Fold this protein.
Amino acid sequence: MTLDAAAKKSNWFSRLAHPGQFLSWSRPLVLPLAVLSALLFAIGLWLSFFASPEDYQMGDMVRVMYVHVPNAWLSQFVYGVMAVSALGTLVWRHPLADVAGKAAAPLGAVFTALALYTGALWGRPTWGTFWEWDGRMTSTLVLLLIYLGIIALWRAFDDQLRAARIVAIVTLVGAINIPVIKFSVDWWNTLHQPASIFTAKGPRMPLSILTPLLIMAIAFTLLFLTLHIVSMRTEIFRRRAETLSRQAALSAEAN
Amino acid sequence: MEHAVFILWAYLGVAVLVAALVLYVAWDARRVAARLKALEARGIRRRSAGKAS
C-alpha cells in the first residue's frame, strides 16, 4: 500500500469513527432500512402462512421455525457485534465502539428472549415439553443472562468511559458462550435438532421452506440494523446532553 | 391448522415484543432529542460544537 493510499484509508476510517460524521451518514439510512425490513416482513409472513408447505414430520409447526430461527440467529449475531465493539473499545479505542456495544445489548436481549419463547412453544408439541435443561437451551438462557448482566453493568456506572472498558472485558469473556451454543448440538445429546441450514452438504430442507426462512431472517436482520443505528444515534445525543448538563451545572456553580 | 394455538401464540408474542421494542427505541430517541434541544435552547453549547457537527 502506498503512503497516499494508506493516508486515504486512515482518513476514511477516522471520518467513520467520528460521532458527528456517523450522525451525518447514518441518518439517510434509517428510513430505507425500515421500509425494506417492513416489506420483507410482509412477504415473509405471507410465504410463512400461505405458501409454505407442511413439514413431513412436524406438520404445521414448521411455521414457528420462521420466527424462531431468525431470532436465534440474531441472538448470536448481535453478541458478535458486541464482541467486535468490545475489541474496538479495548484495542483501537474507536470512539463509536462502546456506543455500538451499548446500543446493541438491549436489542440482543430481546431477540434472545424471543428465541427462547418461540423455542418453548415449538418444543411442546414436537418434543412434549416446553423446556429441557439440555446444552442448546441452557446455553441460550445463559446468553440472555449475560445480556441482562451487561445492560445492568452499563447502568451501574455514571462514568460511561470507565464502564465501557469494564463492559468490554465482560463482553469478551462472555463470548466463549457463542461457540458453546453453536456446537452444543454436536457435543452433547440434546432434544434440539442439529444444524440444518449451514452444513457441509448445504441446507437440508426444500426450497419451499428455505425461502420464507431466509426472507424472514433478512427482515429481522434489517430490523436489527435499523434499531441499532437509531439507538446508536440516541446514545450519542444522550452523551452530548449529559455533557451539556454538566457544563450548565459547572457554570451555575461558578456564578 | 394443526397445533394452531402454539403457532398463533408464537407469532403474537413476537409481534408484541418487536412492536414494544420499536416503540421504546423511537420513544427514547425522541425523549433524548427533546432533552438536548431544551439544553441548547438555554444557550448551553458544547466546547467542541464549532469544530464538529
Q: What stands out?
A: Residues 65-196+207-248 of chain A form one domain.
